[in-house]
Design a protein that fits this description.
By secondary structure, this protein is α+β, with helices and mostly antiparallel strands. The chain is built from 6 helices and 21 strands. The strands form 5 sheets. Strands 2, 3, 5, 10, 11, 13, 15, 16 and 18 form a 9-stranded mixed beta sheet that branches.
Length: about 375
Amino acid sequence: MRKAQRALLVVCALLLTQLGSLIAPAYACGCGAMVPGRQSTMGVDRETSVVRWDGTTEQIVMRFTVNGNAPEAAWIMPVPSRAEVELGDPDLFGELEDLTAPQRRTRHYFWPRDNDWPFSPDTDGASAAAPPEAGEPPVGVVGRERLGDFDVARLTATDPDALRNWLETNGFELPADLAAGLQPYVDQKWEYVAVRLTPQDEGTPLRGTLDPLRLSFDSDRLVYPMRLSRLADQPQSLGLYVLADHRMEPRAPIGGDEPKVRFAGRVSPEDAPALGELTGAGRTFLTAIDQHFPQPERIDADHELRATPSDTPYQQVYYDDELRMIAGVPAWLATVGGVSMVLVVGGAVLRVRRRPGAVPPPRRVT
């Protein structure tokens, strides 16, 4: 009887735990903080951004792929100076994906392998901010505009708690520890872009890939804000396309796995027309970087990128290994067969010449 009661208590506890996970907000962060409304959940499956820096001005075009049941959500992005915000070109990411896709090449091998005849009947050989002025309120609204499904507010703040209060008053739901996460940016006198993601079709859940958003601001260094991502409650995946005069690399992994370069090379709008809005007509160096953050709480800084010692181009290559063929016949078989035939014929000739009683050719008398 006691065992049955204990089992019942365990089942009830598990059910309550699962129920709690369904109604509790799931806070997931991109480079800023993605925050759903109350009683809603939202996760950022992937954050992909294009960063363009010409030495003085930085542009960031961001695209999120999200899941959950939230009809609206908020996103907070710190920036080092006054930002302009507009919708980005949705074709940009598809063009860059095609441009940086791994190449497929075929390489041939001579001797048969496990899946080749005669070892297997399967003959398929392929393998696989400026400082605030005196008397300025702790939160200032620089501008506010509606861009598609985005309600964008550009803000200044001298107090993280005042910023949090302003956002909550204006319909943004924030986790309690976000104000502490904003403190380093307040100390550096950065500004903020607050975005409310509200679909034009009211009540429609935010799912799938959202429209890209482009931010432009002055910066004397190439920085990609990541510090707030430490508030995420699930692993984060970052895809970063960096456009600059040279090949670029992160100064440090900032608490994630080692960043991996999957493409590096010179590109122009002739290669990807949507690049024109970021680079103009000239050529620039594109570096595509992927990074995974299995434990977001370990993120301890923003990404700052620097030029590498050399502009070495790189592109991933996937090889399809195939057995070399000659006229539909495996090259090894044709070669072995040909050599065998030569040996057989040569051996026969030698045997004929050495046959007993063979009459030697007549000697020529001069």
